[in-house]
Amino acid sequence: MDIDSTPGSSHIVHYVSSNLKERVQAVDPTGGRCLVENCSSTRAIEYCYLVPPRSWQISGILNALEWHWNMRANTLNLDTGRNVFPAGASVHHMYDTGRWVLAPEEAIVQQYYDTLDPICGAVRARFPIIPDRNDFQYTLIPIKDMEDIAFSRQTATDASPVPDNFTTHLYPYDTLPFLVSHIHPKYAIVSAGQNMSCLPLDRLQALVQSFPRLINIMVLYRAWMFHPPINNREDDSFWPPYDPSGDDGSEENEEGDDLKDAVTEKGRYTGTRLKRAREESPAGNHPRIRAANQQSGEVEEYEEIEVRDCDSVITRKGRCTGRYRRRKQNRHEVADDRLSASGKEKQSCGLAQMTVGEHTRKVGKMEWNRDAVRSWSSQVLHEKQGESH
């Protein structure tokens, strides 16, 4: 379990799957050791998101990044190993509370920055594709409340540690070496921009004076946060026409970075732990149900109940699984429970709940209401009285 304490969040606990941890460890150059202190992976190592999973619930952020990063709609996966790095518990907490950021290599930041237009800002078609690597270099930059914090970094890892294997680094940590990691620079830029945007203006101005390289990072973040054009759905590279032959329901690729082959006709991932929390429908229907998959009467049957039963799960065609599905199959029992809430009405029926349940299982989908139960109970009582005579 990891804690998301990014500024503005409510210390939400996020589950980091074992599969994601394995994917991170497979590409992490340190083998799962803390990125900052290089301590052993057996020493309370946690897994830290650059862009937190809660951003999946903010459709504006996802739309903007997908557009400016020249991706297709609904294909950005934040649950990728390129967005997660290992860190000690205290280091992780300080990162999630926005106290320090990771600045990518200046050459990479400049490569992104050179594609910006002086008037239009970020241009979708110009976005540079920087391949995944396991040796990106980052600089740790403190941005708030770090003046009394020291990092103790382990320098030798090939044997049992001794006192000489550790070096202490004090604020502003300019003695720390470059931090080598597999995380992709675009996620680090977004994360740094998010944290710096939460700072007071005077603090931000003082920060960029001390670390001028942060100016370009902040400019990139703000450029990438601009809303896509109103007519973005007319761009086939962003909203491609649905091709049924290409939807094989395949799982996301191992790294899950762009997931270009894992988009279904509804724009969702297949086989991911975190389904996209937003599914905007161009037809204006329920946000979780795309027009392409609607069957006759299917939306009307389920969409009104979804808010009440939050533990239900929406499947590919808008159907519900979980508690509500069981309740819907036994809705006659629910109606009977409501009827039995009043002792007088239950006595007037003269029937036990088990009797009603047995009969309704035979009838099937008959709609049981107050009048139907009374009519049926009167008929059954009349038949029983006739048999007794």
UniProtKB/TrEMBL annotation:
Taxonomic path: Eukaryota, Fungi, Dikarya, Basidiomycota, Agaricomycotina
Spans annotated as Disordered: 236-297, 328-357
Species in which this protein is naturally found: Leucocoprinus leucothites
Protein name: HNH nuclease domain-containing protein
Basic and acidic residues bias: start-end ranges: 259-268, 331-347
Biased composition (Acidic residues): 245-258
